[in-house]
Each structure stands twice: as structure tokens, then as C-alpha cells.
Amino acid sequence: MKNNNKRQLLEGSRAIALTVKAIRPAVVSAYPITPQTHIVEDLAKFKSDGQESYEYVRAESEFAAASIVLGASATGSRTYSATSSQGLLLMAEVIYNISGMRLPVVMTVANRAVSAPINIWNDHSDIMGMRDAGAILLFAETHQEAIDQHVLAYKIAESLSLPVFVNVDGFILTHSYEACEIPETKVIKKFLPDYKAKKGEFLDPKNPITMGMFAGPQYYFGFRKALQDDLLASAKLIEKEYANWKKIFVTGKKDALVKIDNGLMEYYGPKNPKIVLVTLGSVAGTIKQVIDDAGSKNSVGLLKLRCYRPFPAEQIKKALKGVKQVITIEKAYGLGYLSPLHLDLAAALYGEKIKLASQVVGLGGQDVTETEISKIIKAYEKF
Amino acid sequence: MLSQKYMRPVSNPNTSLNNKTGSWRVYKPETDYKTCIGCSLCAKFCPDACIEMKAQKDYENKLKPVTDYDYCKGCGLCAKECPVKAIKMVKDF
Questions:
Q1: Number of residue pairs across A and B with CB atoms under 8 Å?
Q2: CB A138 within 8 A of CB A264
Q3: Would an 8 Å CB–CB cutoff place A240 in contact with chain B?
Q4: pTM for the complete prediction?
Q5: pLDDT value, residue A266
Q6: Which of A17, A165, A295, A375 has the fewest CB atoms within 10 Å, i.e. the most exposed one?
Q7: Taking 80 as the threshold, does the pLDDT of residue A86 lie above it?
Q8: What pLDDT is recorded for position B2?
């Protein structure tokens, strides 16, 4: 479908704000925290300038912001929020309630390190703490990917009644400028129709219900199992809907090195790689540069996960068939044991003849350079 | 595709009629109507509002507390508050 919006040079936060504006939520609530601030500042400005008619509810904390979008979503409205780091942790209790009540809340998480020591820069320690809260977690590498994933997030959230969080690396994506294309509302509407909650599934004085009511041991287990089953099953829909969206909204040409490109993951590199780096988020761009620089001698591939929860274990196993060495490059420690991505991959590849290595990089905003990536690859090449 | 039966933790009005919380009880209050002076303090203090004062034919139509054991969780507040110690908490299993 033809998109009349031109390709433009935008700050990541503004690109996300413009996309959310085009998606047209009914209620936006957030509490400002670096590096998420620009997104909701822009959304507040669109409202004060009279460009948009959504309710912008100011909150006194992230706990309140999450509670406001929970309540708004419970009345059957499309909602939006954004946060980072300590803010996400303050929302923790509410997030468990949002997923437990099966509310399609979409939120942007501008990933940032957690205290202490206090640090405002990028890593994935914040979201890894919320890994098991029952939300679908998407990770973006570029501005354009973040734009696409926000549209996809609403589609998935509203189809499955599950919260979806789009993770963008703080500063690296939120404060940098990149050429990107924002889909128009009419293009989005073709993929994502207006949200209409079904009767008996939202708070309505004409059909009174209690949400998240008391459930004793005979019922509680059933609800938790249903949440787990639906999350695991959502991987298929994420793959399918991403393909549908990319048919409607085409941006740029596909790179010849991209061998796998779906809603769950992207593989970039040669056909039969010796080493594959597995990663989340913007560091994928740096790794791609290392692969490009190596030219025809290159035997390294990159598997970038776009969807981390549900963890697409089967699809990863298939993608890594025949690879000798896999290295996880991630921006979080799993304090007390292995890092989250490494641990998940080890479980997914159990029994396969693949050597696994883990490398934690860039905590608290430390730059991850091409030299560093090359060094990591060289260290494992000789094995 | 979705788990239909248990998907949404949503309940309709009046489900408390099915969800009888009396099963949580360990101790059960038993009221001795002979000692009871019908002051109704127990009914006022009951946090579950499951004590009702009703006229008893056998006691000259005087008001006496009637406990709804479907909902009484056995907290024992009634026994504690009773000024004449007419209510005893006894094991309910």
C-alpha cells in the first residue's frame, strides 16, 4: 500500500512518538525517566498542540502510570506508556497484574542500566528483571525496526490479549538520528483495525464484571497455565503478522546477506557460517559492520532475536543447524549464574553438537565497538 | 488457538454465592443462647457480616445471633467481644 509519508531524518524517540500517534491510542500515561523522556514529551506536545485527541494522564510515579494504563485498558481502550530502568522496576507489580488480567497494554522500554551504582546509559539489565512477568518482549535494532515493531506490538497485543513491550536501546536508538519512514494512519488501519474489546471482557456498567478476581488453589493454576500456553503459542502469530505487515508496508530493499527475516529473528551472514553471534537490540548493527568489513573471507554470521519472550527455541535450533560455535553477545548479567540469553540458548540447544560461549558487553553504556566484536570473534576462531 | 476456559480471570456479579469462604475455617463459633443476653455486639463486630440477629421462639422471641457457617471464616472476633462469654470457638474438623 502506498504510504504518503516521506522518508525523513528523525530522532529515535520522535520516530516512536510519531508512530504511536499514527496508531491512535485512546489513553497515554507515563512518568518521565531518562532515556525514555523524549517519547512521552513528544506525545504530550502533540496533545497540547491539539493534533491528537487521546487522554494524556500525568502520573506521580511509574507505579501510577502503569496502573492508569491498566485501568484504561480494562475499560476497553487502546493505551500506551513508556519507561526505563528504575521506572520499569517500579512498575513491576502492576505489570504482573496487566498480564494476569490479559490486558493488551503496549509499552516502549528504553533500555537502561539499573542502580546501584546509578547510571542512566544503555544496557538490558532492566528488562531482564521483568523477563518472567508475562509480557511479550520485542527488541529493535534500528529506528525503522522500532517503528515496525510498535505497529506489530498492538496487533499481537490486541489479538491475544497480552501485553507487549518494545525494547529500544536507550540513547543508542532513542537519542540518535536515522533516516526512517513513519506509516500513515490509513496504512496502519489496513493492518491494525480500531480496537474494540468484546462484551464481557472489559469494564462496562451495563455488563458488570470483576477483573483479576480472587482465585483459590483450584482455579489459580489454570489461569497461570493458560497464560503460559498462550505466550508460548504467540510465537507463530508474531511470525505470521510480521510477514503480513511487511507486505503492506515496504521500507528499503532486502540485503543479500539476510537469509532469515521474520518477526522472531533475523539471520545476517554467509550460508554456512562457522561462528554465529546471537544478540538482542542495536549491537546487531555493529556486528553487521564487522561482517561486512571481513568481506568474502568472512565465516561469521549474526542471529539477531527480534522476539525474546516467547523465546523462539525451535526456530533458533533450526537456524543454527550445522554451526560449530555460537557466541551470545548480551548486555546483562544473570546475577548469580549465567546471563539470560546465554542460559536460554543453552537450554534451546541442549543435545546439539554446538559449542556455546557467552560474552557480556556494554554494561552501563560502555561503547561496544567493532574492534571489541572482532576481538571476541578472534578469541573463539582458533578453537 | 487461545486457552478459552481459563483465559481471563473475570468473574460475574454474585459469584460470592458460589464461593463459600466458610471452608477456610479452622475454629467454629458456637453460641450458647442461655448465656447470651442478645446485645448484638457479635453481629456488629463480625467482619464478614455473617451474624444476623433473629427472634428465637424458644427464648421468648428474644433476638439471638445466628451465624451463617457458609461464610464464617472462624476469626473469633465474636467470641472475643461477647461481654458474657456466650460464644466458644471449637475445632471444626
A1: 53
A2: no
A3: no
A4: 0.91
A5: 98
A6: A295
A7: yes
A8: 66
Q: Which helix (H) or strand (E) holds A171?
A: none
Residue A106 CA to residue A29 CA, distance in Å, equals 11
Please check the confidence at residue A158 and state whether its pLDDT lies above 60.
yes
Smallest CA–CA distance from B6 into chain A, residue: A223
Are residues A209 and B12, on separate chains, in Cβ contact within 8 Å?
A: yes
Smallest Cα–Cα separation from A272: which of A303, A254, A302, A299?
A299
Across chain A, which distance is largest between two alpha carbons, in Å?
A: 69
Residue with cell 502506498: A2
Percentage with pLDDT > 90 across chain A: 93
A134 neighbourhood in chain B, CB within 8 Å? none
What DSSP element (H or E) covers A242? helix A217-248
Beta bridge pairs of residue B25: none
B9·A230 Cβ contact <8 A: no
Please tell me the predicted confidence (pLDDT) of residue A76.
97
Q: For residue A53, with 0-12 CB atoms within 10 Å meaning exposed, 13-18 middle and 19 or more buried, which class applies? A: exposed
Preceding omega of A116 cis (within 30 degrees of 0): yes
